[in-house]
């Protein structure tokens, strides 16, 4: 029984660490203007999303089941006399995913939403209230891989493999699970089992 508890704990721990720290989060509890959305993201220690590559675009599109309306991203036109759009951090986009006939510069549509369904970009009035997409800049799912992300991926992978092997060992009732492994795990967090009383010391 102790082995079951430990296996469950390891699998749960790995699962939590694999799904947390995602780059993008869609907040649909309230519809806000573009500027209010930017401030709301900052209050959550995030930024209004910067979708700066096809890889990032694909990650955003995985939110499809949770999005039934357009949502703000961090792109807007600051100078109405210019056609240039910039991200909230004042950088110029190197990747875009505009819908047909977009961006629409004929009216004061200076901010950008990503529409549901095909996730194409279109301009909208900045004062319009929409839900919004925030980004955690410290955890990038991008084409740029650092030594830190490599190590994190390796350790997470090893954790999952270890959990799977342990589960298989338990299910198949291999001798290693019934002897040395069980005895070692019994000493970790569960106490030492008394063989005479079948209780914990």
From TrEMBL:
Signal peptide: none annotated. It comes from Aplysia californica. It comes from the Eukaryota. This is L-selectin. SUPFAM superfamilies: C-type lectin-like. CDD domains: CLECT. The chain crosses the membrane at residues 6-27, 154-174. Residues 19-135 form the C-type lectin domain. It holds the Pfam family Lectin_C. The keyword Signal does not apply. InterPro entries: C-type_lectin-like, C-type_lectin-like/link_sf, C-type_lectin/snaclec_domain, CTDL_fold. Keywords: Membrane, Transmembrane, Transmembrane helix.
């Amino acid at each position: 029984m102790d082995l079951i508890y430990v296996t469950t704990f390891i699998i749960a721990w790995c699962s939590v660490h694999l799904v947390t720290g995602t780059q993008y989060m869609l907040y649909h509890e309230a519809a806000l203007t573009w500027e209010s959305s930017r401030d709301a993201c900052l209050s959550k220690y995030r930024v209004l999303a910067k979708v700066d590559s096809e890889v990032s675009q694909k990650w955003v599109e995985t939110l499809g089941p949770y999005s039934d309306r357009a949502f703000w991203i961090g792109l807007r036109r600051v100078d109405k006399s210019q056609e240039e759009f910039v991200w909230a951090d004042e950088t110029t986009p190197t990747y875009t995913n505009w819908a047909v006939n977009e961006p629409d510069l004929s009216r004061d549509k200076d901010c950008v939403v990503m529409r549901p369904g095909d996730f194409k970009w279109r301009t909208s009035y900045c004062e319009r209230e929409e839900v919004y997409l925030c980004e955690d800049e410290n955890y990038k799912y991008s084409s740029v891989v650092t030594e830190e992300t490599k190590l994190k991926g390796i350790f997470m992978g090893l954790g999952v493999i270890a959990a799977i092997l342990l589960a298989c060992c338990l299910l198949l009732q291999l001798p290693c699970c019934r002897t040395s492994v069980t005895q070692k795990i019994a000493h970790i967090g569960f106490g030492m089992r008394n063989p005479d009383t079948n209780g914990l010391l």
